[in-house]
Amino acid sequence: MTSTVPALGTRTAEGSALQAVLLDMDGTLVDTEGFWWDVETEVFASLGHTLDDSWRHVVVGGPMTRSAGFLIEATGADITLAELSVLLNDGFEQRIGRDLPLMPGAARLLAELSAHEIPTALVSASHRRIIDRVLKSLGPQHFALTVAGDEVPRTKPHPDPYLAAAAGLGVDPARCAVVEDTATGVAAAEAAGCHVVAVPSVAPITPAVRRTVVASLEEVDLTFLRGLMTQMH
């Protein structure tokens, strides 16, 4: 976990202000959810197995231990979880080295949060080695703190990553806005007590209490995120 925490310029006496924004990475800020599936397909093809496209919804957004473990069990591939994790991370790192498209609205949102000095954290189920590569494209200066999936006892859908991010920033999870693209990430953020903006990437997500669903990050700006704090306490 890396951290350089700025002053909290958004805390107010009544405690109703937005204190921090916590952002997922794959499928939320960078258009990489499809990359993971492509790499998984290629790796299993090299092992002599074909992945069923219906499994994509099972593995999206989860920790590698869960998704890789599911695929080993589903295919019966003769490989350990540790061995497969290395192959998947290697393949993904090569893939993002060739091309790493940002999601529409991502660069604008990060720039706006930085300009207004809103404490911002990147919270991902991806491993540290992957996050550090992606940060080169996103701009590490936009984040006060980053939390990787291999740095917490339990990753998404458990609340641990978002609780760790809020603690690292010194903020109340209930005054944090989280932006996520999968049901797994949404579950983690909601379990931590955060307000959630869901931008579905692969599978649909339905609106709920403290959960707003939008079609694109282009609909999300600082005014929108601050408005969440006044809704549905």
From TrEMBL:
Under the heading Pfam families, the entry gives:
Hydrolase
Q: Which InterPro entries match?
A: HAD-like_sf, HAD-SF_hydro_IA, HAD_sf, PGP-like_dom2
For this UniProt record, the keywords arranged alphabetically read as follows: Hydrolase
Q: Which SUPFAM superfamilies match?
A: HAD-like
Q: Where is the signal peptide?
A: none
Query: What Gene Ontology molecular-function terms does this entry list?
Result: hydrolase activity
Which Gene3D superfamilies does the UniProt record give? HAD superfamily/HAD-like, Putative phosphatase, domain 2
Superkingdom is Bacteria
Protein known as: HAD family hydrolase
Which source organism? Streptomyces tendae
